[in-house]
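Researcher: Structure prediction, please.
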Amino acid sequence: MSIKENLHQFFIGGEHFRKEFKNEIRWFIIFSLGFTIAFSWRQTSFDAFEAVVKSLTNIQDPTYASIATSSVITLVSIVIIFVSSKLLQND
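Model: Predicted structure follows.
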């Protein structure tokens, strides 16, 4: 086979391309639906965190409560990222 035929087989007509294409489509669907789920729960989780922050700090101003809630969510997320990266680390 020539180089041109090998490249065509690898990128267009080959089994490797088909498997990789299916794999990429599968990941695209997973990430798209995951993003949709996360977006739909965004306000609910924000409201829950806001209720906890307001009860712990007695902040009544909506702007300050929103800033405090976003800060708490950010800190909790960073801790989860750090812990999960340590637990899932390859030896």
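Model: Residues 56 and 67 are 14 Å apart (CA to CA).
Researcher: Thanks, that helps.
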